[in-house]
Specification:
Blueprint lengths: L1 E4 L18 E4 L5 E10 L4 E4 L1 H7 L3 H4 L3 H5 L4 H15 L5 E7 L5 E12 L5 E10 L1 H6 L12 H7 L10 H18 L2 E8 L3 H8 L1 H19 L5 E5 L2 E7 L4 H14 L4 E3 L2 E3 L4 E8 L5 H17 L4 E3 L3 H19 L5 E10 L5 E12 L3 E3 L5 H7 L2 H21 L6 E5 L2 H4 L4 H10 L8 E6 H6 L1 H13 L3 E7 L8 H4 L4 E4 L1 H6 L5 H15 L3 E4 L5 H10 L3 E2 L8 E2 H10 L22 E16 L2 E2 L5 E8 L3 E6 L9 E9 L2 E14 L5 E7 L3 H20 L8 E2 L3 H5 L1
Parallel strand pairs: 13-14, 16-18, 18-19, 19-20, 20-21, 21-22, 22-23
Antiparallel strand pairs: 1-2, 2-3, 3-4, 3-7, 5-6, 6-7, 8-10, 8-13, 9-10, 11-12, 15-16, 15-23, 15-24, 16-17, 25-26, 25-27, 25-29, 25-32, 27-28, 28-31, 29-30, 30-31
């Protein structure tokens, strides 16, 4: 590996000083670069000087970044901003730090940054300068296996120093990659396996923010010492990132043995750690990836451990083993999380409108504004697919502001056209609702369009009432003083306490789909719903029902005295232009079914329909011309022919967005592999999706498939219950649940 020195950071104090020449491009034999830049803060005038490499990392001109740390921090990932600013504040007090965080470059690409600071004091011992070295780890993350084992510096002492974590003295990320590369080669040559354990201490952020970096660093050192003692010395424990450690468990082991190791690690921290005057709990999450002879590259191994870790945290578990089923969902979330920062700027967000009608007269009483994201790769996304990511990344607040502003402009246009002055309903996230100055911001956005706030119905979730009841009561009062009405959304799907109806000053109670769907079953559900509606009426609440799909549900709700409702029976959500045609009529009559229309499918030759579902592994091999390697997920195939197949999944895929899917299964003892694109989609209420696929593959693959299908067809004529394949006994709902 070579180090090529680049232009040093200009010394703002006059003569050149090698202390400021901190920037270097580190290149491997494969010409991949790790960019290292620097900044210098002059404490006397609070001005910051950034090296050219920092500007290059972010894709900025010098004038765009200026001489302010605040401007630099504006490019930090929202989820990391608080932590980075806390570290900067500590640096101004003379405390040095090392941390990793994410940033967005000017073109929206996510960067992984490692930052180290050095405090410089004058002759009187006063802090005069702070030097920061920032290293762009994005190339290393992307290159995985090709990452450098070490930097070829002048001496063995320097080499060893570069492979050590400066805080704990443990081997660092580069040392880990070196060892993984060695073990991988051994497994490829001799067989066997090894495991990578990724340990996460995300709660450390709260400890640092509350008790300071000094306590945080002591805490990390004590955790590292315990883990090192457990490992029995050097060789298996590494500090992967500021909040993460990695353990390598060499040698083939059973799943029970791996679980036993996890239990022993968790037991190490059963009691709180004594750090200074504090007793601090150690909350570990662990992701495990196992490498075998047929495994992929190091990037994939590390990503798999991270995916398992994310899955453990999302599910509230202590640990999780990697499963290939996680990969496509993890990939989708990664793409969406990165794209959120640009969704507004690139005008990818849209507003769809759905009528809320009087269940007696079918007059439109209100319109629900729903946000959609027209993603360039994953298609038109509904809120459940990205709202949680928006909350996680901090984008939810600006998205909520945009939705209200855009809906207000549309509403004002409707009034100008003399359409009915109905109410406008919007759902608000707890993150938005509990943000400081929420009511004032709502008032400003509405006033900007010259509207009276009384046009708005604000829908909030039950969980918010439980989390911060006193704040919610105060916020309700402020909003209602403006004329805004409050609806409790999705009642029946969360905590569902009738005490809410009396404790909180609500205007509407909106029943969740659970109640509406339960009306089809009869029995206790209908009795409970009857009491809820009656109690709400006595308390002065108006009850609305969501998800009304058919006449039977409508008739039952009418009989029970439900005030209003929405759902496919009265029309799906649609863009403003299309919805205006319905609003102009003032009424939304139920759309009665006129018989199921058969889907016209152009099929090549015959199609075999299975009595049981055929399990298959699905992966995405290509997206808009880009080759992908993201693992697989399980799907259920209902029928297949030489031209295509039909399958069911619990993942929502877009229709024909340049994605090529590969399906692998087994029939008649032979492995079947086919490639194709999705040409139609059906969504079901239980969170499942049915897809039609048209094959796009070579004649050789088609010929091989036809040969197997002919055998299957002959066998099915002889045997009523054909089972020579990866068939499952469950229904799709049972299988995916």
């Amino acid at each position: 590996m070579k180090i090529r020195r680049t232009s040093p950071l200009k010394n703002p104090f006059g003569a050149a000083d090698q202390n400021y020449s901190l920037s270097a491009e580190i290149t491997t034999g494969g010409q991949r670069k790790i960019m290292v830049g620097s900044w210098l803060l002059d404490v006397r005038d609070n001005a910051v000087y950034f090296s050219p490499e920092v500007l290059q990392m972010l894709g900025l001109q010098k004038t765009e970044l200026g001489t302010s740390l605040d401007k630099y921090h504006s490019f930090v990932h929202p989820a990391d901003t608080k932590r980075v600013k806390s570290a900067a504040k500590a640096a101004l007090a003379g405390r040095e730090h090392e941390l990793e965080y994410r940033m967005f470059s000017k073109d929206g690409r996510e960067k992984y940054i490692r930052e180290k600071t050095k405090a410089v004091h004058d002759q009187k011992g006063r802090l005069s300068k702070i030097i920061g070295v920032v290293e762009d780890l994005s190339g290393e993350r992307a290159a995985g296996e090709k990452s450098p084992a070490y930097i070829a510096v002048q001496s063995e002492g320097q080499k060893a120093l570069y492979l050590k974590d400066p805080l704990t003295g443990l081997p660092n990320r580069l040392a880990l990659i070196t060892e993984l590369k060695t073990l991988r080669q051994q497994v490829k040559t001799r067989g066997g396996s090894f495991a990578l354990f990724m340990l996460d201490l995300s709660h450390l952020i709260n400890i640092r923010d509350t008790l300071g970096y000094k306590i945080g660093e002591q805490y990390i050192n004590q955790v590292a010492k315990k883990l090192l003692n457990y490992c029995g010395g050097e060789g298996c424990l590494y500090r992967f990132a500021s909040l993460r450690f990695c353990l390598i468990i060499a040698g083939s082991k059973t799943m029970a043995e791996y679980k036993s190791i996890i239990a022993e690690i968790l037991a190490l921290f059963k009691e709180p750690e004594k750090v200074g005057p504090y007793d601090l709990n150690v909350e570990l999450s662990i992701g495990v990836s196992i490498y075998k002879k047929d495994g992929g590259g190091l990037e994939q191994l590390i990503r798999q451990a991270e995916n398992a870790l994310y899955q453990a945290r999302a599910g509230g578990k202590k640990y999780e083993f990697y499963s290939a089923d996680l990969d496509i969902l993890s990939h989708k979330k990664f793409i969406l999380r990165n794209g959120l920062s640009l969704a507004l700027a690139r005008e990818q967000l849209q507003v769809y409108y759905q009528p809320i009608v009087d269940l007696r007269s079918f007059e439109i009483l209100a319109v629900q504004a729903q946000i959609r994201w027209d993603h360039p790769e994953w298609g038109l996304l509904s809120p459940p697919e990205f709202i949680s990511l928006a909350e996680e990344t901090g984008r939810i607040i600006e998205m909520g502001h945009w939705l209200l502003a855009e809906s207000s402009r549309t509403y004002k246009r409707w009034l100008a056209k003399e359409y009915p002055a109905v109410k406008l309903a919007m759902n608000f996230s707890p993150v938005q609702f509990l943000a400081r100055g929420f009511a004032n911001k709502m008032e400003q956005l509405i006033a900007a369009n010259g509207l009276d706030a009384a046009f708005l119905i604000m829908e909030i979730k039950e969980s918010m009432l439980i989390a911060r009841p006193q704040e919610v009561v105060a916020e309700f009062a402020e909003l209602q003083s403006l004329g805004i009405q409050i609806a409790l959304d999705d009642f029946g799907t969360g905590y569902s306490s009738l005490a809410y109806l009396n404790t909180f000053n609500l205007d509407y109670l909106k029943l969740g789909r659970f109640f509406t769907q339960d009306l089809m079953q009869g029995g206790p559900g209908e009795i409970i719903l009857s009491h809820v509606i009656e109690l709400s009426r006595k308390l002065g609440l108006k009850v609305m029902a969501a998800g009304i799909e058919n006449e039977k549900q409508l008739a039952a709700l009418q009989q029970l005295g439900c005030f209003a409702g929405q759902g496919p029976l009265f029309g799906e959500a649609q863009p403003a232009g299309n919805f205006e045609l319905l609003l102009a009529r003032r009424f939304a009559q139920p759309v009665l079914p006129d018989g199921r229309r058969l889907r016209a499918e152009r099929r090549k030759a015959f199609r075999i329909s299975f009595r049981r579902y055929l399990e298959a592994d699905l992966t995405i091999t290509e997206m808009k011309g880009r080759k992908l390697d993201i693992g697989s997920t399980k799907v259920l195939v209902k029928d297949i022919g030489p031209g295509g197949l039909r399958f069911t999944s619990d993942i929502r895929f877009p229709k024909d967005r340049g994605m090529v899917f590969k399906f692998t299964t087994e029939l008649m003892g032979e492995e079947i592999t086919v490639l194709g694109r999705i040409v139609w989609v059906n969504a079901f209420q239980d969170g499942l999706f049915e897809y039609g696929v048209e094959f796009s593959m070579s004649e050789n693959l088609v010929t091989a498939l036809v040969k197997v299908l002919n055998k299957v067809q002959s066998e099915m004529l002889r045997e009523t219950l054909f089972t020579a394949g990866r068939f499952v006994a469950n229904s799709p709902a049972g299988y995916f649940n």
